[in-house]
Amino acid sequence: MGSTNPERPKKAWTPEKIIQLFKEIFTAILGLIIVVCTIYFAYKTFQYVGQVQMDDAKDILMLMLGIAGIVIGYYFGRVPADARSTQAQEQAIAATSWTERMSIQTRKIADDVDEVKNDLGEAVPGTRKPSDPTIADKLEKIRDELHAIGAFSMR
Fold it and tell me: What is the pLDDT of residues 105-122, one digit of tens each?
């Protein structure tokens, strides 16, 4: 009972991936600019140590450090979450595909069981009854269980 499911080739650059790439590039550039500006303001603040302008420089640096912290926190938190989300979506697609294949396979096996049961009925010449009624009963039970599995997997 080999699987006859041809795998579809995956497209490397879907529209979603292209949009995601542009979003990543834009946010990376924006984040880099914010971090570079924060480093620049920190450097400039050190030049005002001991001068009157130190309070103003300190306020600007505090503002930039907060924004830089948000940018860094965003990247460290979002990237792993996106990776887990992508993995979960792939697993859901694989599970759905597997369920569909199992449903088709169980229906096929149930049909094969019906065929065997009919062949047993024709085994005794001149009758429509199987040569051994217990075998027919067992086959019907197997067929019913396969139909139940197929119906359950399609929910």
Answer: 888 888 888 777 777 766
Cβ count within 10 A of residue 27: 14
Residue 7 in domain = no
**Per-residue buried b or exposed e for 91-120, using 16+ beta carbons within 10 Å of the residue's own CB:** eeeeeeeeeeeebbbbbebbeebeebbeeb
Tokens of 1: 């009972």
Question: Is this structure's pTM higher than 0.70?
Answer: no
What domain count does the chain have?
1
Could you tell me if residue 6 is inside a domain? no
Query: Cβ neighbours of residue 86 under 8 Å, at least 6 residues apart?
Result: none
